[in-house]
């Protein structure tokens, strides 16, 4: 019989939600044009949709679709200032991704994993013998 504590179940549920949130944000950012939009918005406090279209040199409909994806993920917010929409970044929505990537960076630096593996090659070779 397997017994789970309520704390374990809650942590598992919260971790799963966090994983899904991170994946959704990463998926929304997973296109060069959307990265370019985020970089553009990082350089300004806000930007009119037409300016984004001009900066990216893409069709207005293409930029609108990229903005829709970023808005759905909560990365970008748009305020209507008739007759235009003014877009800006929602930095708060990126906090979970920022924390996740920072944790990876800190772990990498603290472990000094310069060979890109989870276990340094010298330790592995000494512990388990060489592969040859």
The number of domains is 1
End-to-end C-alpha gap: 44 Å
Number of helices: 6
Main beta sheet strand tally, sense and closure: 3 strands, antiparallel
The CATH class is: Mainly Alpha
CATH superfamily (homologous) name: Winged helix-like DNA-binding domain superfamily/Winged helix DNA-binding domain
| Arithmetic mean pLDDT | 79
**Approximate shape:** elongated
What does it look like?
This protein has about 130 residues and is mostly helical. The chain has helices at about 5-30, 30-40, 50-55, 60-70, 95-110, 120-130, and strands at about 45-50, 75-80, 85-90. It has a three-stranded antiparallel beta sheet. The longest helix has 24 residues, at about 5-30.
Task: Name its key features.
single chain, about 130 residues, mainly alpha, Arc Repressor Mutant, subunit A, three-stranded antiparallel beta sheet, 6 helices, 3 strands, elongated
């Amino acid at each position: 019989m397997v017994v789970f504590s309520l704390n374990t179940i809650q942590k598992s549920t919260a971790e799963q939600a966090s994983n899904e949130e991170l994946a959704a944000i990463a998926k929304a950012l997973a296109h060069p044009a959307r990265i370019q939009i985020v970089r553009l918005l990082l350089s300004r406090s806000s930007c009119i949709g037409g300016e984004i279209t001009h900066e990216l040199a893409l069709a207005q409909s293409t930029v609108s679709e990229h903005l829709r994806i970023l808005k759905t993920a909560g990365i970008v917010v748009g305020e209507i200032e008739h007759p235009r929409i003014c877009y800006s970044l929602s930095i708060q929505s990126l906090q979970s991704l920022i924390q996740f990537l920072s944790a990876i960076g800190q772990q990498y630096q603290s472990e000094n994993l310069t060979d890109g593996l989870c276990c340094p090659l010298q330790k592995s070779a000494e512990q388990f013998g060489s592969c040859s």
